């Protein structure tokens, strides 16, 4: 086997055929389930429905990052002066 050089097989970045087929089938199953989701949710008990929605929420809405402030950019005088304006 040559060292450092690819001498056969798939080219770099080419997906495995089985992996591609599996992903395609999974996408089809998920698409069907998403269409059935409202009916499925309606059949669940309220507590179970809420638990499921909480688990699905991160996939639909990104988490909000907290705001942070970098106080190192201000001098002490600027920080004290800003506090007196309130």
The Rg value, from CA coordinates, equals 27 Å
What proportion of the residues is helical, as a percent range?
55-70%
- What is the molecular shape? flat
Ranges where pLDDT stays below 50 over 5 or more residues in a row are none
Structural class: mainly alpha
Q: Spell out the helices and strands N to C.
A: HHH
Structure explained in plain terms:
With 86 residues, this protein is mostly helical. The chain has a domain at 15-60. 59% of the residues lie in helices and 0% in strands. The protein contains 3 helices and no strands. The protein has helices at residues 17-43, 46-60, 76-84. The model has no long low-confidence stretch (mean pLDDT 81).
Brief account:
59% of the residues lie in helices and 0% in strands. It has 86 residues and is mainly alpha-helical.
Task: Give the topology, please.
Layout (H helix, E strand, L loop, with lengths): L16 H27 L2 H15 L15 H9 L2
């Amino acid at each position: 086997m040559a060292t450092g050089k690819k001498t056969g097989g798939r080219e770099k970045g080419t997906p495995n055929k089985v992996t591609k087929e599996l992903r395609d089938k999974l996408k089809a199953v998920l698409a069907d389930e998403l269409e059935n989701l409202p009916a499925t949710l309606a059949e669940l008990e309220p507590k179970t429905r809420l638990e499921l929605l909480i688990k699905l929420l991160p996939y639909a809405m990104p988490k909000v990052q907290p705001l942070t402030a970098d106080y190192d950019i201000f001098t002490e005088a600027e920080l004290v002066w800003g506090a007196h304006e309130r």
